[in-house]
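re: ur question from yesterday

yeah so i grabbed the chain u mentioned. its 292 aa long if i counted rite. heres the sequnce exactly as i have it in my notes:
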Amino acid sequence: MPNVLDRRAAALAALLLAGIALAPAAHAQSLGLGGAGDTQPVEVLADNGIEWMRDGKRFVARGNASATRGDTTVYADTLTAHYREGAGGKTELWRLDADGHLRIVSPTETATGDTAVYDIDAAVLVMKGKPEVKLVTPDTTITATDAVEYWSAKRMAVARGNALVVREGRTLKADVLTAYFAEGNAKPQANKAAGTGNVETVDAFGHVTIKTKTETVTGERGRYNAKTGIATILGDVTLTRGTDSLKGQYAVVNMNSGVSTLYAAAPGAKTDKPAPVRGVFTPKKAEPLPGQ
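ran it thru and got these structure tokens back, copy pasting raw so excuse formatting
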């Protein structure tokens, strides 16, 4: 019969979880609770109790539940920590499930949604929620209607379904967006997780739309380089600025200088005779002089 612990006895649950070794996960990031060689305990709190299911090899915390390790805390209505038998008789925490009113907080990132599964072996966090999942980093906000995956070892986040990246007043939208992070705190201090770092590049796939203060660019695929401020868009590209528009197959958009260039084909594309770039420019009517 599982033990049920109230909030006042949560310290006991923390001690129990402290004895569970986390499976190695290389390059652990601040939204993850696991890390290679990390021996910090996981403290679990819950208003409605914590169940220790020995047969199922899991802990279940219910009611304003939270799990904290180092500087990262996962909040949810229910948290389920799964563990297994490891080498030398040790046990390993290999998965954490969060359900209901999900919120993950670290010193540099915040994520919100409905549910999450953190696979410690793969160092992958998958978050879902309606109407959207949101991940906020120091310089970028990422949202999606289907899911946001956070890949710690690969230093990237994948947003699926009406995915949107907002950075410095510019937006990049697509069916799927993959954001790659620059190196953050490569050597974290004691008891502190490594920072994610700023977004370095973003790859976009399907129904790509880039919006700046003056123009909108659409296409099939794209890449944005945050360091240079340059975005490249490929496949049935349309650039619209006011009532003027350009159509081509490849575009280079410099978001810093405001200069955009369209081409008939991408560099190195194998095509005999690409269709020419087409532009439509609508002259504005002259404003009437006073008294006319």
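noticed a couple things. Confidence is low (pLDDT under 50) at residues 1-29, 185-196. also Helices lie at 10-18.
anyway ttyl
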